[in-house]
């Protein structure tokens, strides 16, 4: 994983190690005119520790991470609504558009979802097609399926 945090420790971007170019593109789009530089951290951040715990089965740990994003007001509204989808559950793009009070903005919700710079923590992988099929995920549909399976496994294990 690639994680970008700012001086205050807020998570600004998160992507898969093989998607660095995509992550940098999203960062440039969100922060036009700002030079964003990546460098290796001297010590492990709270975000990195939380992601390790998430992959170890503590799926709720990501809910506590502070995230700061650029983007438009609409994108930030969609991204905030994504964080309200519980781990292991899914919501359709149409339902997400309705949830934010913009039922006719299904395509715009899809575009905002695709522009999400903080994958997993802002859980765009929890959004699916109206027909309940997996659709669109920047990390690939196999990863999307894995993330959903991972969350369901640990969610269900915690409710026993």
TrEMBL record:
Active site residues per record: 124
UniProt-listed GO biological process terms: DNA alkylation repair; methylation
Pfam families in alphabetical order: DNA_binding_1 (PF01035)
Domain Methylated-DNA-[protein]-cysteine S-methyltransferase DNA binding per the UniProt entry, residue ranges: 73-152
CDD domains (alphabetical): ATase
Subcellular location: Cytoplasm
Listed PROSITE patterns: MGMT (PS00374)
Keywords in alphabetical order: Cytoplasm, DNA damage, DNA repair, Methyltransferase, Transferase
Note: This enzyme catalyzes only one turnover and therefore is not strictly catalytic. According to one definition, an enzyme is a biocatalyst that acts repeatedly and over many reaction cycles.
Family classification: Belongs to the MGMT family.
Name of the protein this chain belongs to: Methylated-DNA--protein-cysteine methyltransferase
Organism: Azotobacter vinelandii (strain DJ / ATCC BAA-1303)
